[in-house]
Amino acid sequence: MLQFLINGLITGVLYSLLAIGFALVYNTTKVFHIAASAVYVVAAYMFYTFASVLGMPLPLACLLSVIVTMFVNWGTEVVIYRPLKRRKASLNVMMIASIGLMTILVNVIAMFYGNETKVIDNVIQKTYTFGELIFTTPQMYQLVIGSVVMILFMLVLAFSRYGLRLRALSADETLFETLGYNTNGTRSGVFVLSGAFIALASCLTVYDVGLDPHMGMNVLINAMVAMIIGGVGRFGTCILGGVLLGVLQAVVVYLFASNWQNAITFVGLILFLFFRPQGIAGYKQRTV
User: Fold this and answer.
1) Strand ranges inside 92-227, DSSP E
2) Fewest CB within 10 A of the end CB: N or C in the chain?
3) Is the pTM of this model over 0.85?
4) Backbone conformation region of residue 114, classed left if phi is above 0, alpha if psi is from -120 to 50, else beta
């Protein structure tokens, strides 16, 4: 049972990274960034190209993948969302545009790389044993790198001026702009930072389980559920929601079967929407 809980914790770290990437955009711009699932896939295939096709060292391949993905995610803001916002399009229109962009990107990737599953490294990975617990090398990377990045992010969010601007934009965009801050510049920075979290979650995941063009949406759904149950409107609550969801799915696999993972995810979401729609650590928001 303890092994399953640890596996769930590691999965929760990956959910948390992607949930932060999604929440950065949603909390600050209110755009439901469905295209993040395609950006996740782009990061995976950039990692595959740099590491497996070009033969670069894994750390360099991951770093380059993160950089490319940051620009791709920023491009969604500049090319899609910002022009729509300038034309005063509704958030529903932006979400539909995001779905369209996701469809285009996924199909372009499938056209160039094919639909079959690919792997980054097919060698037998070294394992680490701590008592009765077993960790693979990819799991160690996921746990250590993911945890360090999230801790650094929380420190920046809490103690830096940039973190203060993020929280201010999330609280009230109109007041943020009225006080003289550069809204477009801050939004661009949000999308760049979001792309970094999405790419890191993607690289850490596909190094372990492989990749295919259609994997992004399922992972993004789990990340969105993690954001909702953790608490919409805050960034750190994504970590709480992601870890809880990962552990819950691991317990379901231990007690029943892996086929029940998605079911328990949506059962948990429905329960939270009925009984605590603001999430575990979120706050009730008033609409005017």
Assistant:
1) 127-130, 133-136
2) C
3) yes
4) left
The whole-angstrom separation of Cα 153 and Cα 140 is 20
- 45-68 pLDDT, tens per residue? 999 999 999 999 999 999 999 999
Nearest to 224 by CA among 215, 214, 232, 236: 232
Give CA–CA dist 11/245, Å, rounded: 9
How far, in Å, CA of 189 to CA of 119, rounded?
Answer: 32
Where do we find the tokens 């559920």? Answer: 225
Can you tell me whether residue 150 is helix, strand or coil?
helix
126: left (phi over 0), alpha (psi -120 to 50) or beta: beta
Tokens of 116: 């079959």
Helix-, strand-, coil-residue percentages of the chain, each rounded to 5: 75, 5, 20
Q: Is 211 helix (H, G, I), strand (E, B) or coil?
A: strand
Residue type for 49, please? T
CA distance 199 to 72: 10
Of 215, 186, 182, nearest to 201 by C-alpha is: 215
Residue with tokens 């056209």, as numbered in its chain: 111
* Cα–Cα dist 69/41, whole Å: 10
CA gap 196, 269 in Å, rounded? 26
CA dist list (Å): 77 to 110, 167, 237: 23, 19, 24
Counting every residue written for the chain, the total comes to 288
Q: What is the pLDDT of residues 187-213, one digit of tens each?
A: 999 999 999 999 999 999 999 888 999
Separation between Cα atoms, residue 32 and residue 99, nearest integer Å: 10
Which stretches of the chain are assigned E, i.e. beta strand? 127-130, 133-136
Is there a contact between 250 and 11 (Cβ–Cβ < 8 Å)?
yes
